[in-house]
Amino acid sequence: MGSTRLYTKGRILGHKRGKRNTRPNTSLIQVEGVTSKEDTKFYLGKRVAYVYRAKTEVRGSHVRVIWGRITKTHGNSGVVKSKFKHNLPPHTFGASVRVMLYPSSI
Amino acid sequence: MVRTTIKPHQTRRGFRATGSSPIAVDVSPKEVKVGGEKNGGTQNHPRSTLRPSITPGTILILLAGRFRGKRVVFLKQLESGLLLITGPYKVNGVPLRRVNQAYVIATSTKIEVDTQIAEKFTDAYFAKEAASVKQSAEAEFFEEGKPKVKAAFPESKAADQKQVDKAVLEVVKAKENLAKYLKASWGLSKGQFPHQIVF
């Protein structure tokens, strides 16, 4: 059976921050395979999902999602800023995130 | 002002031709009834645009929903802006369906499709059936847990599906491997990055 993945993988790098102050409403995401500012143009506006499991079942599932969107580029090397419905908690730093291919513009 | 042809794009450095010839597109705003006392009854809403990469007969990849990953044939854009697509049903199980442009990738694969076959389909065709007689709260409570009685799929809709697919399948079968292509699902694999893929 071929691949059924309809999202690009990404990593949560941390919150938007200066050296000593963090702005937790925006998270930085490293999208796999994206290494320059020009490459990130494709991903701007795309929806992002942080998927995780929990012990208690909610609405018939142990799987939970925090949805967000990629909002802007960050720096020159392909990192990207994103805002989520609820701020990502710090224990997610280093965790994987799914960058969906919608809303699509191609 | 209502623009009906595409003009060269004016930049600071002078005119830059957009490359495409004028296409007759109806871009006059559509009248929509609005509720509320102070809203003047009707409003002018702009028409939905269609990405230039999506033309009748284009093979699209669905990105979300029940049929995510499926490759389907685009028939036409409906009044509401949604796209009318079909599998065809026999090939990949996708029926005549509406889908939003934003949840679709247009591939460069195109087939010849006669737009006449999709002429009769409108948004009203896909409207949900109005709920029949409302049950009392008690009756509903007792019904819970029992398998719901589903209305059988209307014969007319099945016939419509067959009629549209007949025309589309002719073209699909004619092209080598196209039926297999439409049957297969699409997905990303290791080392594939969408910003580098030419669809």
Protein described:
- Helix content of chain A is 0%, strand content 55%.
- Chain A has strands at 7-17, 22-31, 47-58, 61-74, 79-84, 96-100.
- Chain A is mostly beta strands and 106 residues long.
- In chain A, a hairpin with a 4-residue loop joins strand 4 (61-74) and strand 5.
- With 199 residues, chain B is of the alpha+beta class.
- Chain B has a domain at 50-125 and 162-185: SH3 type barrels (Roll), CATH 2.30.30.
- In chain B, the strands form 3 sheets. Chain B has a 5-stranded antiparallel β-sheet with strand order 8-7-6-5-9. Chain B has a two-stranded antiparallel sheet with strand order 1-2.
- Mean pLDDT of chain B is 82; it is low at 19-24.
- The interface between A and B is medium-sized, with 22 and 23 residues.
The backbone outline of chain B, from C-alpha atoms, is globular
* Rg of chain B, Å, rounded: 22 Å
- How many helices of chain B does DSSP assign? 4
Beta-strand residue percentage of chain A: over 45%
Helix content of chain B: 10-25%
Please give the structural blueprint:
The complex is a heterodimer of chains A (106) and B (199).
Chain A: E1 7-17, E2 22-31, E3 47-58, E4 61-74, E5 79-84, E6 96-100
Antiparallel strand pairs in A: 1-2, 1-6, 2-5, 3-4, 3-6, 4-5
Chain B: E1 9-11, E2 14-16, E3 30-33, E4 42-45, E5 58-62, E6 71-77, E7 83-86, H1 89-92, E8 97-99, E9 104-110, H2 137-143, H3 155-174, H4 178-183
Antiparallel strand pairs in B: 1-2, 3-4, 5-6, 5-9, 6-7, 7-8
